Amino acid sequence: MQPLDVILLQCDPGAAKPLVSALGDSFRAIHQVGSVGEVRASIAKHRATIAILDMERATLSDVEGLSREFPAASILCIHRCADEEMWTAALNAGARDLCASTDTRGIIQAALRTMSGTRSAAA
Fold first, then answer.
1. What are the residues whose beta carbons fall under 8 Å from the beta carbon of 24, sequence distance 6 or more?
2. Distance CA 114, CA 90 (A)
3. What are 82-85's contacts with CB under 8 Å, separation 24+?
4. Is residue 122 part of a domain?
5. What SS3 state is found at 85?
6. Which domain holds residue 26?
7. Residue 62's closest CA among 81, 102, 89, 31?
8. What is the pLDDT of residues 6-19, one digit of tens each?
9. CA geometry: angle at 123 spanning 87 and 104, to 5°?
10. Hey, which end of the chain has fewer CB within 10 Å, N or C?
């Protein structure tokens, strides 16, 4: 079963374009937004099943709040300097996974994994 919609909050427009294109090969619709408030509105509007959050735009408390408010949506966090400490903190806040924002293939694989409800074993 393919998720219907993915919400993407990416702080780097140059990195967002190829990611949106690559995600489009695996998911029906990708909605790029510019703020956590827009993430919230887009999840509600599109009934998105996955939200990909750049941790340079979102905080751990944002991840926590979105996870609580939208328990059916899987939160995937990305960061250009993802490390084990950040990965653990993101998971504790309710994220399903954390990937390096430059790892397009890893982001897509993590998004696809979230459909099965499993969490990643490594950052």
1. 30
2. 15
3. 82/55, 82/123, 83/123, 84/123
4. no
5. helix
6. 5-114
7. 89
8. 999 998 888 899 99
9. 115
10. N
